[in-house]
Task: structure prediction
Amino acid sequence: MRLLPYSGYAEMRWKNGQGVTREVCRFPASEQYDWRISVATIREDGAFSCFSGYLRSISVLEGEGMFLTIDDQRSALIPPFQATDFNGDSQVFCEVVGGPLLDFNVIYRRETTQATVCWERDGTWQHQQGTMLLFNAGNRLDVIVGGECHTLHHYDSLLIDNPAMVTVNAGSDTLFACVTLTSVNTG
Result:
């Protein structure tokens, strides 16, 4: 289990050179990762980088929303805190609504990993297998993992990679992402 403070997220240029992302975490910590979680600022309309062999999930954290045109199909308005999944091989164009936005991204190799992104307010569950990442989109999030208490501040994350009972207590104005990442059995 690791607490990942927002201040420690590494900043890097986008593959297409048109922006900057802050990496929350990747596994393994190499160029050929199985999964990567990040936050990025999108300042203007433009094409997304291609991530061949990967699947993607994106959510708006700050801003009014966006439209994505994925392989020539324009989406409905994607409002904040709605995870939207698409293929990293797709041609994707983003239209920003109402000015710059901050987004939350999960990119994962389809041959090795399954991922889900859910936006929650609170809850208790038994984490069984794989990796779980909790990302705090609010001011403060109290998380109890196996009886141990952790406080996540704005945009901090908690990485849980062992089975444990997890309880999250948030204020009424706090949302958090619960990302689950499991290995795909390749037989």
